[in-house]
Amino acid sequence: MTSSYKKILATFIKVAVVAFAFWFIYNKLTKHNDLKEFVKLLKAIPEQQIWLVLGSVFLLMLFNWGLEAVKWKQLIERVEQISLWRAVESVFCGLTWAVFTPNRLGEYGGRVFFLSPKRRIIGVVAMTVGNIGQLVLTNVFGAIAVCVFVHRFIPLEPIIFAAVCGLAAVFALFFLIFYFNIKWLNGLLLSIRFTRKYKKFYSVLARYQKKELLQILLFCLARYAVFTTQYIIMFLWLIPNLSAADIIMLVPILFFVQSTLPSLDLLDIGIRSITALFFFKYITTQNTAVVACIASIWLINIIIPAILGSYFVFKLNIFGNTRRD
């Protein structure tokens, strides 16, 4: 393929990605009843208060994705050196790709296209390590929160409750052990004849030391704390009679349940709302406020970053090296 054809095809792909993203976003926003309920709730709240709260949640969103960019930069150092700004660009570009692809798979493509072509597959593996770290925390805190929830709201015989807690502990411990020994996965793949010939792509798994994995996990923990804080702020603002302790108990369960269900980012809001209503009914009857909280955070954390990321889509050089800083 000649360079001129490559340029035309690359431009077409970029325009198609942005067009798909905006079409999905527009289509969802115009039919989103939960967001309409959120707007109705805002009419009864002083404008200064709205700007203060939503501005705080928005800043936390930027901080959250900033942490992800730093984490991504550290993960990819084993593959290719990139600047922090390049990491920020790739993270937001990935969010635009993720918004219309199942289970956020497009996020991988959006990020690794900022790497040199020969390192992109290895970049996918490195990104997977970071996603596993986030999943570990989601499962660990989710398992703990489920035990607390069951203890408070579901009467069980002591021996059955003990069994539930034991299973939760084994479940959480499994993910922690697996994460800090991610190199085992490299050994497993090497032991399979079919995958052995692709070892140059996944051998990066063996390079991560426990100290590095701990650093990545701490970034994941910081992100977890940030988006949990967003939920606390929104729920206490719209449903002030809730206790922070109850929100801290239920939010990890929401993350845990959502992580197990396949979805599109844009369809995920329906799953989030249904899950939230199911669990929050134990502590409040204000269903409208609950779905409004979920919808507003979905808008700020997913939709706005995807829109911002559309600018960075056009900075990709799909068939060649990206411009280096």
Give the biggest beta sheet. Answer: none
Helix content: over 70%
- Average pLDDT rating: 88
The general outline is globular
Q: Helical stretch count?
A: 14
Helices and strands, with pairings:
Layout: H1 3-30, H2 33-42, H3 47-76, H4 84-98, H5 106-112, H6 120-153, H7 158-180, H8 183-190, H9 193-196, H10 199-202, H11 210-238, H12 244-259, H13 268-280, H14 287-313
Task: Explain what you see.
The chain has 325 residues and is mostly helical. It has helices at residues 3-30, 33-42, 47-76, 84-98, 106-112, 120-153, 158-180, 183-190, 193-196, 199-202, 210-238, 244-259, 268-280, 287-313. It is globular. Mean pLDDT is 88; it is low at 321-325.
Compose a concise summary of this entry.
By secondary structure, the chain is an all-alpha fold. The protein is 76% helix and 0% strand.
